[in-house]
Description:
Blueprint: H1 5-9, H2 15-27, H3 29-47, H4 56-67, H5 78-123, E1 130-131, H6 135-141, E2 162-170, E3 173-182, E4 185-193, E5 199-204, E6 207-214, E7 217-223, H7 227-238
Antiparallel strand pairs: 1-2, 2-3, 3-4, 4-7, 5-6, 6-7
Amino acid sequence: MQPMIEPYLDGELDPNRQAQVLDHIADCSSCNEEYRRMQQLRADIRAGNLYFSAPDSLRQRVLSTVRNPGKKPRVWPWKEMAMAASLFLVVSLGANFVFMSRDRSENRFIAQEILSEHLRSMMGGHLVDVVSSDRHTVKPWFSGKLDFSPTVKDLGPQGFPLSGGRVDYMDGRSVAALVFLHNRHVITLFTWPSSRSASDASTHNGYNTVEWTKDGMIYWAVSDLNRSDLQTFSNLYKN
Length: 239
């Protein structure tokens, strides 16, 4: 399956084949490692053209100042100052672009993992490990199974009743997967500790996802529910 990873990253596969490769990557540690390696390689290649060498004249002036700290530096002509400022701006923008590209790439991979786990749980008949609409039953069930205590809410009065929960594996760690229902649509809410800030909504193969962070936790909601209703669910859960 590894030879299919590059065409998958290039978007050259049909939707069915793409889903097969995604499922395999999620289950196979060696292919998962190769996928991440190729992602990093592609990011590094894209970042390669953002490297700029300083002009020799500028380099010599910097070295002269360092070697002669007691010497009063001369005032740079405005053209040289403008060139240095432009160089700094280009390098800064380039670095920001690299970091943003890597974040987007990582985010896409997590979104694909989340969709894959959501679909697998539905097809395999393994939606929940603890079946209950009572959050006071579901929340204690995670004790000892995770290294954190997830926030569990019952939004039944608002039309999103809790169905239960399970432990899943996401982003290289064990996470809580909470299952909710809305008009016979299944919503899986994945949550785990995270230091980064995120707020996003997207569509993948006909399924909608909403991502947000709060109080040191990241949340990913995924469902075939329309985007408006899924966003309503997410907003209710945030508050």
